[in-house]
Design goal:
With about 150 residues, this protein is an alpha+beta fold. The protein contains four helices and seven strands; from the N terminus they run H-H-H-E-E-E-E-H-E-E-E. This is Methyl-accepting chemotaxis protein 4.
């Protein structure tokens, strides 16, 4: 009986630690907005070409927890992507989420019509491997036909 109690206590402790660890790897909505706003400032400071290379470079300040910066032009072409360099140069305008929503087109519409805002869609969470609700904060890039995006899992 003592071994069973010890096993249960250890299992509960491990579950608590895993929950804390997961919370530490997920960025918050406020962190996503801050990263997107900082990305716009970086573009203004160093120019689009250098900034886009910085956003795409692995291990830099533009990836934090599960947050990363990506940039998409209004024609759907990806010009920077902090999580998947293979997406740079790909046109994603037709991409749909698990529910059939054209979420890149929605992000473009938000950036063009409002200047900034949140786009919600379903996406595979790389940690849980399950389809989760994701929200991306997008900001139109002043003087450039595209937007910066940083997303969070809910």
């Amino acid at each position: 009986m003592h071994k069973l109690k010890m096993f249960v206590v250890l299992a509960l402790a491990q579950a608590c630690l895993m929950g804390t660890a997961l919370a530490q790897v997920h960025g918050t909505a406020e962190e996503a907005k801050t990263m997107a706003t900082n990305a716009i400032a970086h573009i203004k400071a160093v120019g689009p070409e250098k900034a886009f290379a910085d956003f795409t470079a692995r291990g830099g300040k533009w990836q934090d927890k599960d947050l990363y910066v990506f940039v998409v032009k209004y024609d759907g072409m990806t010009v920077a992507h902090g999580a998947n360099q293979l997406l740079v140069g790909k046109n994603l305008i037709e991409m749909k989420d698990a529910g059939g929503k054209a979420f890149i087109q929605e992000m473009i519409n938000i950036a063009k019509s409002k200047g900034s805002g949140w786009a919600d869609y379903l996406w595979t969470n790389p940690i849980t491997k399950k389809t989760d609700q994701k929200s991306t904060y997008v900001i139109a890039i002043p003087g450039y036909d595209g937007f910066v995006g940083v997303g969070i899992y809910k």
